[in-house]
Amino acid sequence: QVRLVESGGGLVQPGGSLRLSCVASGFTFSTWTMSWYRQAPGKERELVALIKISGSTNYADSMKGRFTISRDNAKNTVYLQMNSLKPEDSAVYYCNARLLHATYWGQGTQVTVSS
After folding, report:
1. Hey, which of 22, 41, 48, 88 would disulfide with 36, CB 3.0 to 4.6 Å?
2. Residue 94's pLDDT is what?
């Protein structure tokens, strides 16, 4: 059974940092592209960052220089380090695993940036 379990969300002040984690199970983690998406109320889900099996990464323009995605294949875990957080970063953050036409989602973790 495939599972993606996110953690690390919470309430943080503007300018603060959070690190999200997503632990995967039920598939060969190291062979899948892993991504973080987010969805704010009333908005569509958007890609935040992805990391391929090679370790190469891509980021949405608004996250470049502030967010860092990484993976630890030994721990079946993908991380999202978020720095210099802004109120507009508030959203539910979802972990995604993708291989060809197959894709899996986690349940999401809430990130709220507010003073």
Report:
1. 48
2. 98
